[in-house]
Amino acid sequence: MNVTLTPSRVAGTVRAPPSKSYTHRSILAAGYSGEATVRDALWSADTQATARAVELFGGDIDRRDDGTLEIDGFDGRPAVPADVIDCANSGTTMRLVTAAAALADGTTVLTGDESLRSRPQGPLLEALADLGAEAESTRRNGQAPLVVTGPLTGGTVSIPGDVSSQYITALLMAGAVTDEGIAIDLETDLKSAPYVDITLEVLADFGVDARKTDDGFAVDGGQSYAPAGGEYAVPGDFSSISYPLAAGAIAAAEDETVRIEGAHPSAQGDSAIVEIVERMGADVDWDRDTGTIDVSGASLEGIEVDVEDTPDLLPTIATLGAVADGDTLVTNAEHVRYKETDRVSAMAEELGKMGVETTEERDSLTIHGSASELEGATVSGRDDHRIIMALALAGLVADGETTIKGADHVDVSFPGFFDMLEELGVALERRE
Ligand SMILES: O=C(O)C1=C[C@@H](OP(=O)(O)O)[C@@H](O)[C@H](O)C1
Ligand SMILES: C=C(OP(=O)(O)O)C(=O)O
């Protein structure tokens, strides 16, 4: 599907979709349990990949009409899957499920789409091998397809912290049901650290004790997963909230408001987007008790933003920077290159088609902004949900039409994204 947007003013009230990160973890945690109910789960292409994996490990997932998931788990012992696990486009699924597969008494094969088959898995495979499993890339290049043979007993392992925090999450979630537990020593500083905080929060909510240590993280073995009262509720997603928030900041009139509901505080580092748009000059009010954010339009100024903890915000910040006056410098961005696409280059190149000048370094992106220079263009969504959504924001204020090719990939994290834009008053057309 291609989507064409024309310049639009936005206003109105929208609801944040449920968090993708919390949904992945709670579906897998429910899989590790005897049984559990997950309410308000995100049902997107990525979270369905995790659900499929839980079923292949012997779990059963029943999705009710209201979106609630009733999950019969595999009770700490994944069965050997009867088929290859297709993780589709989802890095989180591949990392978390690879460690779960290492608990099974047999061999699991994991694969994914072309993008996922180019992302780094090597440090996790080495860690699992150090812990007693066999874990290999079929092409011996650290990328999927992966072949994992368990069971793993546990122990102490060291791993780099600057490639993906998902390796740590994967080891902590699996470690809780090993015999010996797992202690993780970080070889380098941890990037995307708040995502491990999310993991610790979900583990605690499922009655599993895991902790930070002087050298990294640790989880004792022999634990059981069970949420209090048998139920777990997923909070709203701040990476997804970044899009309506940025839309309001760049395309709401000064006397109009975009209201976002479902924005309750949690461990998500991406809630930093509220402070970022505020620092750029937008008029923002976040009522943490009611979980409501109000934003009105204003002229924005370029700022410096460190995305070490918040890699998924880079595309949104790049568009905000393109609209702001002056330079926006995004630092600590190297790990943003290891996502569905190299998002640093993708945003530089696609915004470039819209007349935006950028300066790209390995670890940073400077956007030389100016709203008056944004021109509508035909751009590629790069088969990457966040690139598509960030470019759609640019289309709200560009001069003339903006067409985004391959826009259906928003279903990875935000299936209702274009419906939400329409609810806010955006004029757009979908073409198959
Ligand atoms: O654990 C998670 O839910 C995620 C961790 C982050 O990845 P890295 O840890 O690989 O940076 C983030 O970019 C991804 O969208 C979701
Ligand atoms: C990078 C992302 O997810 P994943 O790593 O799960 O593919 C994302 O949602 O932006």
How are the secondary structure elements laid out?
Elements: E1 2-6, E2 12-15, H1 20-32, E3 35-39, H2 45-56, E4 60-63, E5 69-72, E6 85-86, H3 91-101, E7 107-111, H4 122-130, E8 134-137, E9 146-149, E10 155-159, H5 166-175, E11 182-186, H6 194-205, E12 210-212, E13 216-219, E14 231-233, H7 238-251, E15 258-261, H8 272-279, E16 283-287, E17 292-296, E18 304-306, H9 314-323, E19 326-331, H10 343-353, E20 357-361, E21 364-369, E22 378-380, H11 385-397, E23 402-405, H12 417-423, E24 427-431
Phosphoenolpyruvate (PEP) binds next to helix 3.
Main location: cytoplasm
Subcellular location: Cytoplasm
Catalytic activity: 3-phosphoshikimate + phosphoenolpyruvate = 5-O-(1-carboxyvinyl)-3-phosphoshikimate + phosphate
Walkthrough of the structure:
Its EC number is 2.5.1.19. Belongs to the EPSP synthase family. Residues 7-421 form the Enolpyruvate transferase domain. The protein has helices spanning 20-32, 45-56, 91-101, 122-130, 166-175, 194-205, 238-251, 272-279, 314-323, 343-353, 385-397, 417-423, and strands spanning 2-6, 12-15, 35-39, 60-63, 69-72, 85-86, 107-111, 134-137, 146-149, 155-159, 182-186, 210-212, 216-219, 231-233, 258-261, 283-287, 292-296, 304-306, 326-331, 357-361, 364-369, 378-380, 402-405, 427-431. Helix 1 (20-32) packs parallel to helix 3. The protein has 432 residues and is α/β, with parallel strands linked by helices. It has twelve helices and 24 strands. The N and C termini lie close together (4 Å). The protein has two domains: 2-17 and 236-431, UDP-n-acetylglucosamine1-carboxyvinyl-transferase, Chain (Alpha-beta prism), CATH 3.65.10; 20-233, Alpha-beta prism (UDP-n-acetylglucosamine1-carboxyvinyl-transferase, Chain), CATH 3.65.10. The longest helix is centred in the middle third of the chain and has 14 residues, at 238-251. The radius of gyration is 21 Å and the shape is globular. It has a four-stranded mixed beta sheet, with helices on one face. The mean pLDDT is 97. Shikimate-3-phosphate is lined by residues 21, 92, 164-166, 169, 192, 195, 311-312, 335. Phosphoenolpyruvate binds at residues 20, 46, 90-92, 312, 339-340, 386, 413.
